[in-house]
Amino acid sequence: MTTETTTLHAQGASPHLGESLGREAWRRLKQNRAAMASLVLLTLIAVACLVGPWLTPWGLNEVDWTAFSAPPSLADGHYAGTDANGRDLLTRTLYGGQISLSVAVVATFVSLVIGVLYGAVAGYVGGRVDTLMMRFVDIMYSLPFMFMVILLMVVFGRHILLIYAAIGAVEWLDMSRIVRGQTLALKRREFVEAARALGVRGRTIVTRHLIPNTLGPVIVYVTLTVPKVILLESFLSFLGLGVQEPMTSWGVLISEGVDMMQGAPWLLLVPSTFLALTLFCLNFLGDGLRDALDPRTR
Amino acid sequence: MPHPLLELNRLRVDFALPHGRVTAIKDVSFSLQAGETLALVGESGSGKSVSATAILRLLPEMALPSGTIRWHGNQDEEDLLSVPYKRMRRIRGNEISMIFQEPMTSLNPLQRIGRQIREVLDKHTSLRGAAANARVIDLLEQVGIPDPHRRATSYPHELSGGQRQRVMIAMALACEPKLLIADEPTTALDVTVQAQILALLKELQQRYGMAILFITHDLGIVRHFADRVCVMRHGEVVESAPTQELFECPRHDYTRMLIDAEPHGSKPPVPSSAPVMLDAKDLRVRFALKKRLFRPNEVFEAVRGIDLTIRKGQTVGIVGESGSGKSTLGRALLRLLESSGDIRFEDTELTHLDSSQLRPLRARMQVVFQDPFGSLSPRLTVGEIVGEGLRVHYPELTRRQRTERVVQALEEVSLDPTMRQRYPHEFSGGQRQRIAIARALVLKPQFLLLDEPTSALDRSVQATVIELLRTLQQRHELTYLFISHDLAVVRALADTVLVMWEGRIVEQGETEALFREPREPYTRELMRAAFLDQAA
Asked: Does residue B311 form part of some domain?
């Protein structure tokens, strides 16, 4: 069957000759409706979080003395209700989105870059270097996460950047293991050997032949990392190590909402809808990207 | 004439793919008498495997078969395409059984051999307990597994490829089927093992009087093994005739082409005064099997002291079975693997050069690998793949100059240069191998290592690749080191042959002389197994 499908591809000659991989991938992504809808929705959420707080009638820390735990209503401008302290929930959710999304993007990006490079190098070089590099990863794994965060606090003081650093420092470990495993399998393939026979430098083999071929599992893993990072941040904040009042994040809002679930369900529903929608879109977008970037799925 | 055991009548299989229907086979009709061997021959994609799997209804779900498959088994005549699923399960493994190409993956790696055979007995016979165990041992004995009592408790990984295929045959025979479908059962095996398996199948067929439907692409086996032959192409049977008749006077052009595609021709030796291109002395390659911290590593020596001289313009063929160390030797000569001993390439001693000192030499010695699917990076376009060597060795070239040379190289291997923007998966096996050759040629090397470059290709494609290699050798005065397990190809292409076995050279000499009068017993055995058709 493989040969038959191959010839099918060859016959149904692609009319898009001479396109770069990027433009080609974009064209294929556009054909994927679920991915495109997700991309649009994700952009809307991000823009709302950035611009929204200025448009809502209430500020982040502004207390409405006439409405404590008030349900959503259009009349007084609390479109998503207020919390127990009389602060506007929609405003706080949008502000929280700024923190959650930026943590997600920065920490995931950091883990992606470090993890992919580290794993690919360890896997490609192999031997003693590989053993040393991976034992270092094991040691990092075995350090308690909380201990590391507290240590960082002691040394550098409390700062939002620390959250990025701490989460990034943990998340790249998984990524490097995944990429190393992929690389080990890939480097036995003949195209890598052919590249070596051409005299291609090790650095180029890693960046040009190995890393692009690990993209599939990497993208899938990234879409799993983002929710993990958002939840990790809320966990830190919950313990008082992350963002501090009056600043907030989706994770903090949700954990507060859980406490008020019976009396004021909107406190849980609004921020968790934002979070769920974001994660949902990321999953579809990740799937779409993986397919679009793989020339074989054309 | 008695009722045929099996009769396919206008069988057609369509596949419902996301982008429409594709017809895999159309209008296939043939019949098979009890005790007869029918060979289904064709190249990849001809629909021979689809036809065979349709008989047992093992097609994937998206397949839509139509037509009739009449079966005269233990019961009255029935149509296998429409019998209820329950009845089909009674037929599978009991009246009709099947063996597959890949003995490495057709057995469950986590279960003992004996248990896997017993599973068949449990399903289809009333044998239980000690009687079933005795039957398992008996079956293993019949398929020639030594020490069957011990082997029944072995796991598949403890057996060699040939033994695994024997176990598969034992499973297939467990219920003494009326029909055995063998889908390329020897393709993954070495020639000597292949000869043993074929002899075993013949013997068992006579003992049980079963019919065999034998699917293969190898005409040598067909000539030796089958009573009748159906030649398939593009999902149709183009010719069907008794074996001898088919080989003596093929009626259809395609059949004639297939028979002619067996490699032929020969290469005259170069004068012994030709300058030496590559010279190796006492070459050894060791692999560490188990690394230990404080004791010496456990090592396996894959290449055990080989002396080798290749002269300019020569084609040196290395033959041997899998595990003989022939590929390892080739890689070590190009310093893709660490080795001990001396290697000289023209005037340069390679042994002590590091990778940056080797780099300028890499342009002059290139390599083409076996697997046309694995040797091209799936995420680069053909143009990028072929141009990669130019980036390394001629970084001063502009984009346009590089493209020019890529186009030239693609034209040289008769590929349309406008296809350079495409990705490897859009090409067929033969085209991919041409791309791999173009990648090597673009640097204008003097020496090419060809590691089984034709083994994964259909015979007719193989013939064109061999022709291409010949032309290129003449045009560019190339020197080849040609590694293959396929003696017919080596005979057609090489002027000198080395026979390898367990990391050593057993015999070497000029091709014609060596093939006509092999001196060593191992070489003789190899030739006997490979030239089945001539022995017949």
From this structure: no
Q: How confident is the model at residue A8 (pLDDT cuts 50, 70, 90)?
A: very low
Asked whether residue A118 carries a pLDDT value surpassing 90, the answer given is yes
> Cβ separation of A296 and B378 shorter than 8 Å?
yes
Which of A191, A200, A209 is opposite residue B374, by nearest beta carbon? Answer: A191
Which residue among A7, A196, A209 sits closest to B377, beta carbon to beta carbon?
A209
A contact residues 50-79, partner B, Cβ 8 Å cutoff: none
Q: How many domains does the structure of chain B reveal?
A: 1
Contact B132, B118 (CB under 8 A): yes
pLDDT, mean over chain A? 81
Nearest CA to A137 out of A149, A122, A150, A126 is that of: A122
Q: Is residue A3 part of a domain?
A: no
B429 in reach of chain A (CB within 8 A): yes
Of A4, A197, A213, the CB nearest to B336: A197
Query: Best of A190, A196, A209, A290 to disrupt the B interface by mutation (most B CBs within 10 Å)?
Result: A190
- The pLDDT-based confidence of A133 (bands split at 50, 70, 90) is very high
Q: Are B392 and A21 a contacting pair at CB < 8 A?
A: no
Average pLDDT over residues B22-43: 89
Q: Does the predicted model carry a pTM greater than 0.95?
A: no
Residue B189, in any domain of the structure: yes
Judging contacts by C-beta atoms under 8 Å, the chain A residues touching residue B439 are: 194, 198
Residues of B in contact with A4 (CB under 8 A): 22, 24, 45
Question: Domain with A132 in it: what CATH number?
Answer: 1.10.3720.10
Q: Could you tell me the CATH number of the domain that includes residue B37?
A: 3.40.50.300
Contact A198 B426 (CB under 8 A): no
Residue A296 at interface with chain B, using a CB cutoff of 8 Å: yes
Please report the pLDDT score of residue A166 as a whole number. 78
Is B18 in CB contact (< 8 Å) with chain A?
Answer: no
Residues B467-515 pLDDT 10s? 999 999 999 999 999 999 888 889 999 999 999 988 999 999 999 889 8
**With an 8 Å Cβ cutoff, is A263 touching chain B?**
no
B370 and A193 within 8 Å at the Cβ level: the answer is no
The domain tally of chain A equals 1
Q: Please, is B319 exposed, middle or buried when counting C-beta atoms within 10 Å of its C-beta (0-12, 13-18, 19+)?
A: buried
Q: Is residue B504 assigned to a domain?
A: no
| Domain, as residue range, for A121 | 22-57+86-297
Which pLDDT tens digit goes with each residue over A151-183?
Answer: 877 787 777 777 777 788 788 899 999 999 999
Residue B324, pLDDT score? 86
Residue B302, helix vs strand vs coil: strand
Q: How confident is the model at residue B293 (pLDDT cuts 50, 70, 90)?
A: low
Domain that holds residue B98: 6-260
Residue A25 CA, distance from chain mean position: 20
| Cβ contacts from A onto B, under 8 A | 97
HSE toward the beta carbon, residue B496, CA cutoff 13 A:
21
Phi-psi region of B4 (alpha: psi -120 to 50; beta: other; left: phi over 0): beta
Shortest alpha-carbon distance between residue A208 and chain B (Å) = 9
CB B325 within 8 A of CB B503: yes
